[in-house]
User: What shape does this take?
Amino acid sequence: MHLLGFMPETIPLETIPLVFLSKISENIGKMKKQKSKKSQKGYTLIEMMLVLMIITVLAAMSVGSLVNSQRNQIYLNQFEEVLSVLNNTRSLAISGKGAEDKTDADNDSNKTEYISPANYGVQINTTHDTLVIFADLNPNDVDGYSEFEKDNEDPEIRTLNLVDAVTLEAETQDADGAQGENLDSKTFSLYYSPLYVDIAAVGNNLALDKDTPFLVLKVKDADTDARCRQIRIHYLAGIPEVEACN
Assistant: This one.
């Protein structure tokens, strides 16, 4: 349709009176103004609220994923630290490395020498979730493990305190994985003998033998059972083996 709404397009432009040309110019100006106003209209309140809701949901999902990822990394780091403590203790026993006799455990009046310990041990406290590597310089019973215990004369080599987000549980198990003694909220020691590189776990009447050959340490996330891995140690082999919690 023509801009004037009633003139056919076949009429030569030079025949159109000036008043009609003025009208055309006026109509074109109005159309431009209307187009400009339409482009400046912007978003409605509902549209803005909808966009805000989408942004909020996406932000919440991102934050939740980030927190979960950080929590998982903390757990994995702590588990690796526990495994490192056990492997470190076994390696010390295998190497037969001497320990500094700061308390003069051998009663020779020399507190600066290094002596070979009877055992290397890990004191495990499942109440406070701590592990302490120590050198057993002066065992109470050199013929067996039944009376071995960490005392003030045994130098501490390394201490691991788990963060609050991670807990430590322990138990003994038979060959089929059935639970023996529950060691939660207890303190006991795990010993590696330099002579045989086997282990003995003592404390709270704890005993490992052919009927109950495994000591199991469970490292768990304090808030979810989804993060749980356990370390099984056979009383003869003494090698920490990692597996999923059962």
User: Anything to note?
Assistant: The first strand starts at residue 99 and ends at 100.
